[in-house]
Fold:
Amino acid sequence: MDPEFIVAIVAVVSLFIVFPAMVFHYITLWRKQNSLEPDDERMLEDLWRSAKAMERRIETLEKLTDTQPDDEIPAPRRPRSSFDQ
Structure:
């Protein structure tokens, strides 16, 4: 057999069989995973709590380091998102 013929056969098989098989394989894996794992949900909740605690600490530090006189009390900050309440 001619080496060019073998290269052509391998190219055609790769293009029309292997590549679509890989694409469909990863599409089915993607569809199976349509929600977070319980461990991921727990980790996300822990990160959310940590972020909220850090935000409270930063707001406290801002209040402590505020250099405005007492007669000009700044307005309270609005929540940044609807999740803060």
Summary: The mean pLDDT is 85. DSSP finds two helices and no strands in the chain. The two ends are 74 Å apart (CA to CA).
